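Lab notebook page, bench 4
Experiment: in silico fold of construct C2
Operator: M.H.
Input chain length: 240 residues
Purpose: comparison with the prior construct
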Amino acid sequence: MADAVAGRSPPSGAPSAFPWVAFALAFALLLSDFMCRQVLAAVFPYLKADWALTDTQLGALGSVVALTVAVLTVPLSLLGDRYGRRRAILAMAGLWSLATLGSAFAADYGQLLAARVLVGVGEAAYGSVGLALVLALFPTDRRATLSGAFTAGAAFGAVFGIALGGALASRFGWRWAVGAMAVLGLVLLVLFWMLVTDDELARHDVPDAGAAAPGARLRAPLSAALSPPAVLCAYLGNGL
């Protein structure tokens, strides 16, 4: 009864569709994440022609996002755990979508490079925070499958971003192609804000056995992420 009053037990009766709605929107946002990240690669020929950019400048536009993500993923993921995953997702999706929209309106290379840095800031922790939000809604025996399905969104998003971006750029120009990715992200952001509420997340939360005490929430992720040798080897292998 106490859990029910606190709103943390899933509703009785027929299974709720909410966890799957949250998963679908989180997956769609991951698609948007990588579509916004990769669309610029599809419009490189147009940028090069319009602004007479060198290959080095074009490479920087692509790599600056990855570098920003690499630097900020862990600290921003910790903030997401500390201050609320839904709030973090809304902030991140809003930032990367608006920064992508800013990319479409950039007047010169410097403005475009700055906008791409902000895209990286917005996208840095979405993969980890979005996955954590989804997994908290499902029992442990489904989490490996859901992790794989969610993570696949990165590959699909990269492909869709380049393919759709190239098709739009060839017909309407590179600014329209980049802007379309931003609009998609903003639409998904509004849907997520409307349909994935804090009350519903709390009501469908599936607590883990032996969860850390509130005071240990910040220390536990750091020790879990840095201490196991297998994890450190995975980090090294992935980097290589």
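Observations: Residues 143-172 form the longest helix (30 residues). The chain is about 80% helix and 0% strand.
Next step: discuss at group meeting.
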